[in-house]
């Protein structure tokens, strides 16, 4: 996985309250070609530095002093919606995973992951792919199915759904099935960049913020079964 983003190194910030672990992750990322622009050891410091540094990817531990990781995630994304958050946690508890995703995290990796898996995950997160430790992706998708099964609030004055083009709908359907941008590009015989453009246009039309919200939108409309 390339450490490039739009022709420049992917910028990353590492947040963890254990200095040795934080330094090791930052070093591994730097050696792999990522540009580590900041690190932080507690929640409030993480929020301040993430807003100042504006990295492409925030590698975030959940268990932080001062402010929990999920709150850091919410605050930073409220300020910088385009930022992608990869949670790197020792906890595989389902409640922690779902809370992280609901707070806006794009991916969730356990600290037991290898260095290679971490580097791949950061690169894929920067590209907009949701990355989950094996076994957790199904959990997250299952939760979205459950939420989608709950009756949605109805309002007589709700605006009509925005009109997506045929190709945007096609890309959205494949996103909902869990395909990566690379797989979608290969299936539709278009470039990776074109897939990203379609997804960005769709996000804009639907007023959604990230791919996780997009998957939920698609599942609510049954596109993953189409």
Task: Write a brief caption for the model.
This protein has 226 residues and is of the alpha/beta class. It is built from ten helices and seven strands. The protein has helices spanning 19-31, 43-53, 69-79, 94-102, 115-126, 136-149, 166-176, 181-188, 192-206, 211-220; strands spanning 4-5, 8-9, 11-15, 35-40, 57-60, 84-89, 107-110.
Can you tell me about this structure?
- The chain is an alpha/beta fold.
- It is 50% helix and 13% strand.
- It has 10 helices and 7 strands.
- It has helices at 19-31, 43-53, 69-79, 94-102, 115-126, 136-149, 166-176, 181-188, 192-206, 211-220; strands at residues 4-5, 8-9, 11-15, 35-40, 57-60, 84-89, 107-110.
- The strands form 2 sheets. Strands 4-3-5-6-7 form a 5-stranded parallel sheet, sandwiched between helices.
- The longest helix is centred in the last third of the chain and has 15 residues, at 192-206.
- It is globular, with a radius of gyration of 17 Å.
- It starts with a strand and ends in a 6-residue tail after the last helix.
- InterPro entries: CheY-like_superfamily, NreC/VraR/RcsB-like_REC, Sig_transdc_resp-reg_C-effctor, Sig_transdc_resp-reg_receiver, Tscrpt_reg_LuxR_C, WalR-like.
- Residues 11-126 form the Response regulatory domain.
């Amino acid at each position: 996985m390339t450490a490039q983003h739009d022709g420049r190194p992917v910028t990353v910030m590492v947040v963890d309250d254990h200095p040795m672990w934080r330094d090791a992750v930052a070093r591994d990322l730097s050696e792999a070609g990522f540009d580590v622009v900041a690190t932080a050891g507690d929640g409030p410091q993480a929020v301040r530095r993430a807003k100042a540094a504006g990295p492409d990817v925030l590698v975030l531990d959940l268990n932080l002093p001062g402010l929990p990781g999920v709150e850091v995630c919410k605050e930073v994304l409220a300020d910088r919606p385009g930022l992608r958050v990869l949670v790197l946690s020792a906890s595989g508890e389902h409640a922690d995973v779902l809370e992280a995703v609901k707070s806006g995290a794009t991916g969730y990796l356990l600290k037991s992951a290898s260095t290679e898996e971490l580097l791949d995950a950061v690169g894929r997160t920067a590209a907009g792919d949701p990355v989950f430790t094996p076994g957790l992706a199904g959990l997250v998708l299952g939760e979205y199915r459950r939420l989608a099964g709950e009756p949605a609030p109805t309002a007589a004055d709700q605006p009509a759904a925005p009109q997506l083009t045929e190709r945007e709908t096609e890309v959205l359907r494949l996103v909902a099935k869990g395909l990566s941008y690379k797989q979608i590009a290969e299936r539709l015989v278009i470039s990776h960049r074109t897939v990203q453009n379609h997804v960005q246009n769709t996000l804009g039309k639907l007023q959604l913020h990230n791919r996780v919200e997009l998957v939920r939108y698609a599942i609510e409309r049954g596109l993953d079964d189409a």
